Amino acid sequence: MTERRISDDALMALADNELPETEANELRAALRNDEDAATRFAMFVETRMLLADPARHDEEVSDALRAAVVRADAQYSAQDRITTNGRDRALPGRPSHDRGPRRAVGSGANARRWQMPMAAALLLSLGGLSGYLIAQQQRSADNSLQTALMTIPGNERALSDALDTGISGSETVLTGGQGEKVRIVVLSTHRLADGTFCREFEIARAQESLIGASCRRNNGWRTEVAVLRDSGKGRVVPASGAAVVDDHLNALGSEGALSPEDERAAMAHNWSLR
Amino acid sequence: MPSPFADELVELLPRLKRFGISLSGSAVEAEELVQTACERALRARDQWMPGTRLDAWVFRIMRNLWIDTVRSRASRGPHDALDEAGHLQSEDGREVVEASMTLNDVSHAIEALAEEQRAVLILTCVEERSYREVASMLGIPIGTVMSRLARARENLAHRLLLDGKKTVRTDMKANAP
Lengths: 274, 177
Description:
The complex is a heterodimer of chains A (274) and B (177).
Chain A: H1 8-15, H2 21-31, H3 35-51, H4 63-86, H5 118-125, H6 129-132, H7 134-139, H8 144-154, H9 156-165, E1 171-175, E2 181-191, E3 197-204, E4 208-217, E5 220-230, H10 241-252, H11 260-268
Antiparallel strand pairs in A: 1-2, 2-3, 3-4, 4-5
Helix pairs in contact in A: 1-3
Chain B: H1 4-24, H2 27-43, H3 54-76, H4 82-91, H5 103-111, H6 115-126, H7 131-138, H8 142-159, H9 172-175
């Protein structure tokens, strides 16, 4: 009997939730005993999960599972102690294995940097919006997006003035050359672990807005992350610009927005490190 | 008190479960898979390199466990159990050492893709757009979206060594007297 090989297209469509339920169920049943197809399918699932925004995948997890992880942690930590004291004596029923020198698990911003969503990582790696919005650039005949990006350099002073002196929630309205209104809204203030202040802001015009964060570096504000949101039809809109910016700030070590009192105090000290 | 490593794992559980559901199609199987993978990760925690993606590391463990289960089922018939696959795995002494992966590795791998592949990959996997939406956005047929996407993912997997061609493993038997 010759078995028909399951196509990559079908496996990828299953991994991407593109198949109707009946077809998906049939394919899953076939996968249960087909190592070759399972291996190819796993590649599609794994590549998708590596790129997916962690915030969008919050499955309910049972208390039993959490408890099992904590229990296993205690068990293997105990095993570590036995291994260290008694030269590789494993707990009964568990295989022993060679252990290298123990590395501490880091904590704080750097250790958690790997948790940054792919979208934010792409922003950094590809040099800002140009990479992330590659899809739009490829198809868009007009250059309105690029024009929107120019909004920042064009109004650099206005943005930095707003960040210097605007309390969170304050709004600055600018009028462009052709009477177009551009709004700058300061959204929040964050303090990083090293004391550096960062401020989240939004720049908006008729159909587009840019949400970003600037941090105080060398007595000036440097925009570290920015995500374009475009309300025009048929355009790619990043899932949540605010979430990308928040995740970026978290990865830098922010523990959340400052209170209005703390923000006022930082402003009074001209955003200097304390 | 759970160790910092266990804390990080617990924080990852919802994401690991999502991966497990995507692989197995079942929430129950997913929890079993996550539990076994976490036990293995805790046992081999010294081999995870801080600063690299812990999620990617545990995904690898889960993926291997799941494929082992399929293999075990295919060779032994329909009665299946993840424990059985796990047992087989510890008998042959395979460990869970895997190539480490940083966020930069992933973004550099994406950067290295052909532009047409990168666009469909980002729209589908990062933005989570449907094939139909991507086809309409880029003005290309769905079949083209799928073929570009499949190639993009194969290239990505190859660059990130996910295609099984260069997975790092240790073999306990090699260390046995």
